[in-house]
Amino acid sequence: MFHGRLLAAACAAVVLAAPSLVKAADCGEILLGSAISFTGKYSTNGIHAKNGYDIAVKKINEMGGVKVDGKCYKLKIKYYDDESTPARTAQLLERLIKQDGVKYMLGPYSSATTKAAAPVTEKYKIPMVEAEGASRSLFNKGYKYLFAVLSTSEQYLASAVALAAEVAKKNGKKPADVKVAMAFENDPFSLDVRAGVVDDIKKHGLKIVIDDKLPRDLSDMSATLTKVKALKPDLLLVSGHSKGAATAARQIKEMKVDTPMVAITHCESAKIIKKFGDSTNGYLCPTQWAETLSYSDKYFGTAAEYDKLFKATYDGYKNVPYQAAQASAAVMVWKDAFERANSLDPQKVRDAIAETDMKTFYGNIKFSSAGNNIAKPMVLRQIQNGKLNVVAPTKWASHPVEWPRKAK
């Protein structure tokens, strides 16, 4: 009898599911590919990016998928783990293209791996919309198949330099009196961040007193922090992806470093507030996106609604990292381009991507002829009582900057 009830329930489930199964069967499939970091030093952000890709695919498919030439298609992503190793990224892209037949690519995580990916997609004329490679050196090679939704890396910490100069003037000091300490990872992204910082330091007339490279494994920056304690800079700048951010936050706390202004890339993705608590108060954190910004679209709604949905979908997020938000935006570019091209031909879709001009919950997206997004600014958030609040540029600020920082 029990088995009979089970069988009846199973039959009822099949009947109930049948209409949706038929509907799904009516749609074709568009396969996107990505070699991304699930292991290795970039794995934290690689997983954030995958979550961003996946939530956008789910949302687009739930809302009817992609319509091309009168037919509907569901998006699907084929992933491989590139182990945070650029050479592996290149190998896996060859595999995705030649063995798996992927004609449309999503980017890997990091500028270093994107630099390895771009020559491969270029060689096979496969368009790639990437969300996680910000190095400006990606966009001076003449690539025709590379498009990036994010702002380029030289912009990441430049606003912190401008803010330090502004604070100095308010307090009756000259920008020339402001001493700056820098510690950067020796990789394409961070070196570009450094180049942008150096340009802005020259522009505003600040003084560099420490200019260090972070160790290769990003696990110890005590040598730099010992110098910081001795030389007492007014501004400390650190860029080393998530691992470097966690190391900086941990060791600044352990060594009781009390620099009045500290700016670190990748604060949210490294979850430093959760890990190091009140000691992180006052840190300035550059971000590509914030849930308080006034962006919106018809898929996710507002930036705040995306933030809420993401947290409801994935456990463990106190703050949604911008790496996830921009990954979702990259998937939205694909949907938009397929539909405007009204074709699945990679060259026609590539041309449609080049003409992108769209508004999303993540910000506006429009590509220069070099493939970088020229329609969206970076913003700077400060950790204030355990929350990340936008403090610069002033146009986007939700809170005034706290200076000197009030770490506990």
Described by the principal axes of the CA atoms, the overall outline is globular
What is the CATH homologous superfamily assignment of the largest domain?
A: Response regulator
How many structural domains? Answer: 2
Query: Under the CATH scheme, which architecture of the largest domain would be assigned?
Result: 3-Layer(aba) Sandwich
Question: Termini, distance in Å?
Answer: 66 Å
Using the CA coordinates, give the radius of gyration: 23 Å
Spans with pLDDT under 50 lasting ≥5 residues? 1-24
Question: How many helices?
Answer: 12
Query: Helix content range of the residues, please?
Result: 40-55%
CATH topology of the largest domain: Rossmann fold
Give an overview in words.
The chain is α/β, with parallel strands linked by helices and 408 residues long. The protein has two domains: 26-152 and 292-366, Response regulator (Rossmann fold); 155-288 and 379-396, Rossmann fold. Helices cover 42% and strands 20% of the residues. It contains twelve helices and 17 strands. It has helices at residues 2-26, 43-62, 86-98, 111-123, 158-170, 188-204, 222-231, 241-254, 272-276, 303-313, 322-341, 346-354, and strands at 28-36, 66-68, 71-81, 104-106, 128-130, 146-148, 179-184, 207-213, 235-239, 261-264, 284-287, 296-297, 301-302, 357-360, 363-366, 379-384, 387-392. It has a six-stranded mixed sheet with strand order 2-3-1-4-5-6, sandwiched between helices. It has a four-stranded parallel sheet with strand order 8-7-9-10, with helices on both faces. Helix 4 links the parallel strand 4 (104-106) and strand 5. Helix 2 packs across helix 11 (322-341), helix 3 runs parallel beside helix 4 (111-123) and helix 5 (158-170) runs parallel beside helix 6 (188-204). It is globular, with a radius of gyration of 23 Å. The termini are far apart. Mean pLDDT is 93; it is low at 1-24.
